[in-house]
Amino acid sequence: MRKKILAANWKMYKTPDQATAFFQEFLPLVQDHDRDEIVVCPNYIALPAAIHAAKGSRVAIGAQNLHWEKEGAYTGEICTSMLVAIGVTHVIIGHSERRQYFCETDDTVNLKLKSALAAGLTPIVCVGEVLEEREANLTDDVLRRQCLRAFNKVSAKKAASLVVAYEPVWAIGTGKTATPELAADAHAIIRAEAADSFGQEFADNLRILYGGSVKPENAHALMSEEEIDGALVGGASLDPKSFAAIVKY
Ligand code: 13P
């Protein structure tokens, strides 16, 4: 049995004070919840407040991005040692918004994945097709290419903590959710590619999250699919009651 992960991606929302207020309301709602892993990924500036607020709870804190170099002259960037130093344990890599707006490529995803694994961070690597690719029946090709390149020269041993998130771009922030069946089909493609890259046993244990307009109302149906090992939640994770309802689906 793969333990599910319910992860919040707060994107570019919440000041440190707002992050603290979120946890004050959220933690009591999930304090007895040990069925699943819970991860919250605030922006860089709100990370220390979130880590402080979540201390002693079961909620892990993740970043939304990282730079792959150990340190250096990269104005505006953050590297793994900085994240680890403040208590970050997870990191989202290759989110479609970074691919779309910030020149993230399959190759930079690969560099970031290697860097995160080397630092002991749990990477959540995002893949997913845009609408035109789905309509042209290219979903299979796109997911396989994104995974193959992301996993390039990463060994199964090193990748042990890897988590993948399937986020169809047409479902992000649009209110359009993939049906549980459609998401499960995509997850099966990703799992098959993981089996090719890392072996069947690794693939059987790999957790693949679904992301794209997950809400309290659709979380149960999505999480009931055997292929779906959790959720990466954007908009509906900003409100403590709403995210707690998703965690408890
Ligand atoms: P929404 O839940 O707002 O659609 O965002 C999904 C997402 O991008 C999570 O990373």
Named once each, the bound ligands are: 1,3-dihydroxyacetonephosphate
- CATH superfamily, by name, is Aldolase class I
Name the quaternary structure. Answer: single chain
The number of strands is: 8
What is the H/E order?
A: EHEHEHEHHEHHEHHEHEH
- In terms of DSSP E residues, the strand content is 15-25%
| The CATH architecture | Alpha-Beta Barrel
What this model shows, in words?
With 249 residues, the chain is of the alpha/beta class. It has a single domain (5-247), classed as TIM Barrel, CATH 3.20.20.70. The chain is 43% helix and 15% strand. It contains eleven helices and eight strands. It has helices at 16-30, 47-54, 80-86, 96-101, 106-118, 131-135, 139-150, 180-198, 200-205, 216-223, 240-247; strands spanning 5-9, 37-41, 59-63, 90-93, 122-127, 163-166, 207-211, 230-233. An eight-stranded parallel barrel has the order 1-2-3-4-5-6-7-8, surrounded by six helices. Helix 3 links the parallel strand 3 and strand 4 (90-93). The two termini are 18 Å apart. The model has no long low-confidence stretch (mean pLDDT 97). The site of 1,3-dihydroxyacetonephosphate has 14 residues, from strand 8.
